[in-house]
Design brief:
Strand content: under 5%
Number of strands: 2
Order of helices and strands: HHEEHHHH
Distance between the termini: 35 Å
Structural class: mainly alpha
Helix content: 55-70%
Shape: globular
Radius of gyration: 15 Å
Length: 110
C-alpha cells in the first residue's frame, strides 16, 4: 500500500477529486474569486460531501475548523468544500502512515 501512496502526493488526490481551487481569469484586470475546478472525479467529490457534513456535526475539531471559516466570512458551501478537501488529505495521511483518525491533528482547538 505504501508503494502506491509513495507515487502520489495529497495535492494530486485533491486534484483528482476536483477540489483544487482554480482561478477564473479573463484578461489582466479581472480578478474573480477562485472556484473548485470540478475537473476530477465527480463521484469521489460527491462521496466526500456527507462524511464532511457528519464530521462537522459530530467531531469537535472539524466543527471548530468549519465555524472558524464561517466566522472569517466564508459561505457555508465554501466551508464545506474546505472540510472535504482537508478530510481527503487526512485520509491520504491515514493510509500512508497506517494510523487512525486523530481530530486534534485535523484542527487544533484553542
Amino acid at each position: 500500500m505504501s508503494t502506491f501512496l509513495g507515487q502520489y502526493q495529497p495535492n494530486q488526490w485533491v486534484a483528482q477529486a476536483g477540489l483544487d481551487p482554480r482561478p477564473r481569469e479573463s484578461g489582466t484586470s479581472v480578478h474573480r474569486p477562485r472556484f473548485i475546478s470540478k475537473v476530477g472525479n465527480k463521484y469521489l467529490r460527491a462521496a466526500l460531501f456527507f462524511p464532511a457534513m457528519v464530521a462537522c456535526r459530530f467531531q469537535e475539531n472539524v466543527e471548530a475548523f468549519y465555524q472558524k471559516l464561517i466566522a472569517v466570512g466564508k459561505k457555508p458551501r465554501q466551508a464545506s468544500v474546505a472540510v472535504m478537501r482537508k478530510l481527503l488529505r487526512c485520509v491520504w495521511a491515514m493510509l500512508k502512515y497506517d494510523r487512525d483518525f486523530e481530530g486534534d491533528k485535523f484542527y487544533l482547538l484553542a
